[in-house]
Amino acid sequence: MQPTIPPREDPEGDVQTIHLGISTCPNDTYLFHGLLQGKVETPGLRFEIELLDVQELNARLAQGEFDVAKASYHLALLRADELMALPTGSALGFGNGPLLLGRKGLDGTAPGADHRVLCPGAETTATLLYRLYYSLTDQASAEPEQVVFSEIMPALESGAADYGVCIHEGRFTYGERDLCLIEDLGAAWESDTKSPLPLGGIFARRSLSDGTIDRVCAAIQRSLAYADAHREETLISMAPHAQELEEAVIWEHVDLYVNEWTRQLGQAGMGAIRALSDRAKARGLLPVERELDVFVPIRERRLFHLVRADDALMGRTPEEVLEDYQAASLETEGFVHLSFADQLSGTLETHFADAERVLLLELNRQAVLADLRLEASRGGADFPHLYRALRPDSDVKACREVRPNTSATEGAPRWPVGERALREESSS
């Protein structure tokens, strides 16, 4: 078992309530079976769970009603300033995308301006894909109407609609309804991008503390691990919400949508999210201001300590500086101040504004984790604190010198250190 950094505890010792929204689809009720049935521990957290249609989840998450919720990647990309994706729980992969279906007799015919087209929600990834491949500008296709996903195939069967973008179990059952497959939108995406399709994910509000989100991630991972270890038991959570599906279809759904990217997005998953974002932005379907961030669990984050190395230490090498180095805060506060990668720029600007030379120490996570605590510091944000002396010989993974950019333009970072720069440096 990996060691973890203990989260900052509530001063009152209270348990925090998390309002969680998930869909009624088998992949979600499978994933959250452990939480729904109280089978896994959730230290410091109590979950209030609602099960809803995906577009209801999108709408209520957008309105701020959930702390954490399953939602469409389309919605999260639109609201990247409010939400971040969690690394576990996504519905993402190959061969699992939405289908553009037509009523009987429309084989091979693309939607036109006079056709009635149904989609399962304005902010679903299904609607985003339809717009990417069948936009009004490019193919004079109909502007879609938005309805609950379960209404789409019945409307096509009755002739009330001409086309519909179907999701979830519709992928497995449309053939029984005598409907036409116009295009597999997921397959079109995969052919164009060579990457898995990001349909839905678990998203947390940025207003939650890092410690809280970290505990939520851990709870979801435990819930999924429990489901994998008690597969048949999960039917008690899945079946009541999939009453129209045969058991074989339920498992087919789970096996398709719960995959390696559900367990961990990884680089391929994050690359797929960027690809969807980039293509939608290029077509004017998303704002360009910012990217959707994926939360990095605290136990996986890079840890840094900054050492002021000018004045009396100016003539010494980094190795010489560290020979007899001792952080002053250990005596005054009882711990050594550390920063995560995304906190470095702020730490430098706040505490090293007048420094001419700073040593950036990257620490060995495994060597220090047992003595770390996550506690509120600058601006109320959670920072890692090391409750013992720094041991340069075993704790320091790398050391490099950093100097301020004295020619930086107004508004540009004065210190050439940040999460993006460090990520690019480590991958080069």
- Gap from first CA to last CA: 30 Å
User: Radius of gyration in whole Å, from Cα?
Assistant: 25 Å
- Per CATH, the superfamily of the largest domain is Periplasmic binding protein-like II
- How many strands? 18
Number of helices: 20
How much β-strand is present in the residues? 15-25%
Largest sheet: 6 strands, mixed
CATH fold naming of the largest domain: D-Maltodextrin-Binding Protein, domain 2
Class inferred from helices and paired strands = alpha+beta
Low-confidence stretches are 1-12, 423-428
CATH class categorisation of the largest domain? Alpha Beta
Using the alpha-carbon principal axes, give the shape: elongated
Molecular structure report:
It is built from 20 helices and 18 strands. Residues 1-12 and 423-428 have low confidence and may be disordered. The strands form four sheets. Strands 1, 2, 3, 4, 5 and 11 form a six-stranded mixed beta sheet that branches. Strands 8-7-9-6-10 form a five-stranded mixed beta sheet, with helices on both faces. The protein has a four-stranded antiparallel beta sheet with strand order 14-12-15-18. It is an alpha+beta fold and 428 residues long. It has helices at 26-31, 33-36, 54-62, 73-78, 125-133, 136-139, 152-158, 170-173, 185-193, 210-229, 235-238, 247-257, 260-263, 266-282, 318-323, 329-332, 344-351, 365-368, 392-395, 419-427; strands at 16-23, 45-52, 68-72, 83-85, 91-93, 99-102, 117-119, 145-146, 163-166, 180-184, 197-205, 303-308, 336-337, 339-340, 358-363, 372-376, 382-386, 396-402. The chain folds into three domains: 16-90 and 198-282, D-Maltodextrin-Binding Protein, domain 2; 99-193, Periplasmic binding protein-like II (D-Maltodextrin-Binding Protein, domain 2), CATH 3.40.190; 301-427, ADP-ribosylation fold (Alpha-Beta Barrel), CATH 3.20.170.
